[in-house]
Amino acid sequence: MEANKPVTTTTEQPQPIRCKAAVCRKPGEPLIIEEIVVAPPMPREARIRIICTSLCHSDITYWKMQELPAIFPRILGHEAIGVVESVGEDVTEITKGDIVIPIFIADCEECIDCKSTKSNLCSNFPFKISPWMLRYANTTRFTDLNGEIIHHFMFASSFSEYTVVDIANLLKIDPTIPPNRACLLSCGVSTGVGAAWKTANVEAGSTVAIFGLGCIGLAVAEGARLCGATRIIGVDIRPEKFDIGKKFGVTDFINSGECGNKSVSQIIIEMTGGGADYCFECVGMASLVHEAYASCRKGWGKTIVLGVDKPESMLSLNCNGVLVQGKTLMGSLYGGLKPKSDVPILLKRYMDKELKLDEFVTHEVEFKDINKAFDLLVKGECLRCVIWMDK
């Protein structure tokens, strides 16, 4: 079989495709670009030719992880954009040639949660880090040339020239939107902007504190800016993040490594005269969740958790303090966004030059250099590195 070509047959049904993918075979080791076979889509699935994909910290986390839910071999990647190559039975929402982005949380548009404005957590297809397809348990669409299975990641697996994605995880978008910008809304930027916009409902004139100024933290700042926040305080251990943060609306900076005998929460309370209206934890550390919660104002302060800590990490809050202070603590998966209704709004705001996306892309590489993207993100030298599949 020639790479990127379907197996020739007399039937018109989609056939297996042989293509290249960057396969993670061992934790923490460089990805191996090898030829694989991608099976045809099953009912309610589509096979996508990936145009470009960006690297997210979640990919790094599961690339390093050695125990379940890590599993190998696996094709990582979940921030992407592609062209529909073929669709399975019962797919009417999209057709061959459509431009789509995969989104890791499902939006079935049928269950009580997907129909509600109160939640973006699909009941029919709850999110989990699964190595399989969304609605076909213990099945994969990837095999290597020896016939051995290769596992999926976050229902996208975009580090492959072709992938198969469930229709509940696909959003059709305007083909005129630059692909190296649209792919960012598959995960990180949407999560941050959405957390400010949809989860926290940041109000004009309010004060926001953001713990961690990586891509998601800066996206929170961008969302807070769009919502009209007056003061946006960035907390990080790297002072150069303040200059970067200014592009997205950060007005004040706290170097958490240089606070002397005061805690970050004490400094924020002093700066704001009682605490920030909204605090966002964007690193993934239980200790920072406590600090963020302590930093928000009594009575109406909201703390939003976006960072992913180890599964066994626990929070410990004083019950009397929770009662007396009247604060809110909540999680925000994908920023509370409903993929099929909210992401098109963000894409339009980008095209209308309201939402900043260009500034998040600091590097672009060819697919053959995908391990360079990993090096850049691990070293903290980029926000988002876009990986082009065909350049």
TrEMBL record:
UniProt cross-references to Gene3D superfamilies, sorted A to Z: Medium-chain alcohol dehydrogenases, catalytic domain, NAD(P)-binding Rossmann-like Domain
InterPro entries: ADH-like_C, ADH-like_N, ADH_Zn_CS, GroES-like_sf, NAD(P)-bd_dom_sf
Domain of life of the organism encoding this protein: Eukaryota
Assigned EC number: 1.1.1.1
GO CC annotations, alphabetized: cytosol
Swiss-Prot/TrEMBL GO biological process terms: formaldehyde catabolic process
GO molecular function terms noted in the UniProt entry: alcohol dehydrogenase (NAD+) activity; S-(hydroxymethyl)glutathione dehydrogenase [NAD(P)+] activity; zinc ion binding
Keyword Oxidoreductase carried by entry: yes
Enzyme class name: oxidoreductase
KW NAD (keyword) present: yes
Keywords: Metal-binding, NAD, Oxidoreductase, Zinc
Ranges of residues in domain Alcohol dehydrogenase-like C-terminal: 216-347
Pfam family, one: ADH_zinc_N
Residue intervals of the Alcohol dehydrogenase-like N-terminal domain: 43-173
Cofactor(s) recorded in Swiss-Prot or TrEMBL: Zn(2+)
Assembly: Homodimer.
Annotated family: Belongs to the zinc-containing alcohol dehydrogenase family. Class-III subfamily.
Protein name: alcohol dehydrogenase
